[in-house]
Amino acid sequence: MSEHNYAAVAKSIISILPRKDYDDESLGPLLVRLAWHSCATYDMATNTGGSNGATMRFRMEADDEGNSGLETGRMFLEPIKRQYPWISYADLWILAGCVSIKALGGPKIKWRPGRVDFVDESLTPPNGRLPIASKGSDHVRNVFYRMGFNDQEIVCLMGAHNLGRTHPNRSGYDGPWVTNPIKFSNEFYKLLMTNDWQYTSSPTGRMQYYNHDKSLMMLPSDMVLVQDKKFRKYVKIYALDKQRFFNDFALAFHKLNELGVPRR
Ligand code: CCH
Could you tell me which residue ranges the Plant heme peroxidase family profile domain spans (predicted)? Predict the structure, then answer.
């Protein structure tokens, strides 16, 4: 069954993650964001969008403002796709996200193959379903409730911002959230609980939160998690209990990547 050796694909993905010339020397965070955005178009009411279909291959979704930078992630996965042409892009992107989380010290995420690549471009979900970082708690809730998540799961999933950074040439925001952006941890929640945040302009003019020496950042949509009492409760829990965060994150990320995937 070498034809469907997903473990071999996973191994090959792990082998391309370390990269001296890229960001914090790992492609992992970018691939986690790619997986997340391929899922984040899901709409429960119409059962449209989500990771099945790999519709980000199509121009309309690739050009959605929120997906800026993700062409780089898809490009890095091309050699893997060439090596294992039988895997769908839809499965590959999600597998890459799951494998990256684990490789960067996070929990093991349950992953199942079975996603297909749509040929019909008209099945691409409309633009505008991704969350916008400058908006408040109503917006964040609307986006995640539309996918079928509750407040606890929202706070938990946002903990992926323990990884990676924002890029002025992609989103216009600037900097990493935590001191080691290639180690999955609960530091994001601990930092959110501090009072070290100044609402300031980034070099591109985007308003965001910087810490005292501008070495770390938070998006307005991250700060919502401590400004909103119902969210804040879970930030406290995850700041104090890393294991609970890891367990809950594994469940929530699995739920995320199954959204809209037809299963018998
Ligand atoms: Fe995120 N995220 N995210 N995010 N995100 C960005 C980067 C990453 C929002 C906005 C942004 C999730 C939720 C949200 C990652 C994973 C997740 C950036 C910077 C913005 C802006 C992009 C750039 O400039 O490169 C908003 C808004 C929300 C919700 O309201 C969730 C949920 C996940 C995963 C479960 C990861 C990882 C990154 C880092 C990417 C990198 O290139 O380092």
Answer: 24-264
